[in-house]
Amino acid sequence: MAGLRGKLERLLYPQVCSFCDGLIPEKGDGARRYVCRACESDLPFRHNDEIYPEHTPFLLLLSFYYEEPLQLALRQLKFHGRTDFAPALARYLCQTYRRHRLLCDAIVPMPLHYKRLKQRGYNQAGLLAAAMAELMDLPLVEDLLLRERASARQSEYRSREEKMANVQGIFCVDEGYLAALSGRRVLLLDDIVTSGATMSAAGVCLEEVGIEVVGLACAGGGLRTDERGS
Ligand SMILES: [Zn+2]
Questions:
Q1: How far is the CA of 21 from the centre of ligand 1 (A)?
Q2: What's the domain range around 213?
Q3: In this structure, are 48 and 85 located in the same domain?
Q4: Which of 9, 125, 150, 209 is deepest in the core (most CB within 10 A)?
C-alpha cells in the first residue's frame, strides 16, 4: 500500500528540489526527495564535526554549519512559509541521529511562545520534528513543552551565565503527558542553535519531571571559521 501511495504521489507531484526547483529523477520507492544531488553537494555538512563544541549538559548534535545555502533554507522555512524545507532537512537530521546511534522513544520540538506561534502560524521546529518523526517512525510529542514567556534575544547577552539566567524558568511541561513519558527517552529538536542555553534549559525542565533527554539536535549552528580558529 505504501508503495502504491508513493507511486501515486510521484505521478501527481513530481519530486522537485527545494533549493533550485529542478526536477529530481525518480529512484525506486524510497522516501520522497527534496534536494537534488547538485544542491546537496553545496550544503555545509559538518561531517565529522556533528557534536557541537559549546558546553551544554546534553549531547548536542548539528547536521550543518550555519552557512549558505542552509541559512537560506532555514530563513525560508521560518519566515516565508516554505514548509517543504522541513522534510528536506529532516532527512539529514535523521542521518546525523543514526550516525551517533542514539535511541529515543519520541521526538520533541522546541516550543515557540504562543504569541510568536500566532504571528507565524506554525512552529518551524515542530515541522522539522514532525518530518523527522515520520522518517524514523517515531511518535512526535509536539506540545510537551510549553513556553511560558518569550525570552529576550540571546544575542543581547554576552556570557554563558547571562544566557542561562535569561532562559531559566521559561519552560514548563504539560503534565498530561507525564504518565506516558515518565522514564522514556526523548530527542529535543530545534532549527538553529547559538549558545545552546535555551535548549539546555528545556532539556533540564524535562529531566526534572523524569523524562530522559538522550540529546539535543539542530539543523544548523556554528561557522566553519569560528570553530577552526578557537
Ligand atoms: Zn537542486
A1: 6
A2: 44-229
A3: yes
A4: 125
Count of domains forming the chain: 2
Tell me: do 24 and 71 sit in the same domain: no
Q: What spacing in Å lies between the alpha carbon of 137 and ligand 1's midpoint?
A: 27
Q: How far is the CA of 88 from the centre of ligand 1 (A)?
A: 11
User: What distance in angstroms lies between residue 107's CA and the mean position of ligand 1's atoms?
Assistant: 28
One pLDDT digit (tens) per residue for the chain, 230 residues: 556 776 676 677 788 999 999 998 877 566 778 999 999 999 999 999 999 977 789 999 999 999 999 999 999 999 999 999 999 999 999 999 999 999 999 999 999 988 889 888 999 999 999 999 999 999 999 999 998 876 666 666 667 677 666 677 789 999 999 999 999 999 999 999 988 999 999 999 999 999 999 999 999 999 987 655 44
Alpha carbons 17 and 91: distance in angstroms, whole number:
14
Q: Nearest to residue 99, comparing CAs of 141, 49, 57, 55?
A: 49
| Sheet arrangement for strand 60-64 | 60-64, 212-220, 185-192, 106-109
Same domain, 23 and 69: no
User: Do residue 29 and residue 97 come from a single domain?
Assistant: no
Q: Are residues 53 and 107 in the same domain?
A: yes
Ligand 1 geometric centre to CA of 164 (Å):
39
CA of 151 to the centre of ligand 1 (A): 36
Beta bridge partners of 173: 145
Count of helices and strands (H, E) across the chain: 10, 6
Ligand 1: centre distance to CA 34 (Å): 8
Q: Nearest 5°: CA angle at 216, between 211 and 222? A: 160
